[in-house]
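Design request, tokens follow.
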């Protein structure tokens, strides 16, 4: 609080030393602040590279994809990308499913031992993997259990 008060006193000149107009202009030069905003550091473009995102892969390749299951969370920064990819696969005639979990962070699998909701989300991941591998229809018997 003291730092804010002294900064405010510096800008307004209320520390009993009246700044000149030039000093005040330098102290409150909003044009220089606007010209270079800290948020400029976060402006970037992502290359449309299929090695970075399968969304950008050639449609002929995407048509050959096996069934896809996407599991994401409601407030995930990748949620829009997941939905767009699922829609693109669906339009191309692929079998695709998407689950959007509520109330979990992007890295929820890291918390599966600590939070009930994360544990339930991890169990759903396991179910989706079982579905993709068709493990529910193939009982694990000794003759089927060889790798």
């Amino acid at each position: 609080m003291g730092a804010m008060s002294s900064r405010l006193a510096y800008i307004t000149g209320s520390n009993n030393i009246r700044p000149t107009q030039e000093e005040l202009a330098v102290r409150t030069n909003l044009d220089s602040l606007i010209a270079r905003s800290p948020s400029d550091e976060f402006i970037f473009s992502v290359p449309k590279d299929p090695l970075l995102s399968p969304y950008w892969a050639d449609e002929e390749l995407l048509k050959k994809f096996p069934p896809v299951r996407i599991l994401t969370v409601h407030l995930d920064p990748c949620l829009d990308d997941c939905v767009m990819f699922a829609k693109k696969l669906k339009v191309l005639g692929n079998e695709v499913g998407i689950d959007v979990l509520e109330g979990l962070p992007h890295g929820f699998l890291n918390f599966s031992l600590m939070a009930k909701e994360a544990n339930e989300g991890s169990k759903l991941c396991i179910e989706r993997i079982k579905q993709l591998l068709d493990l529910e229809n193939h009982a694990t018997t000794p003759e089927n259990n060889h790798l």
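Comment from the thread starter after seeing the answer: thanks! Strands lie at 68-73, 96-101.
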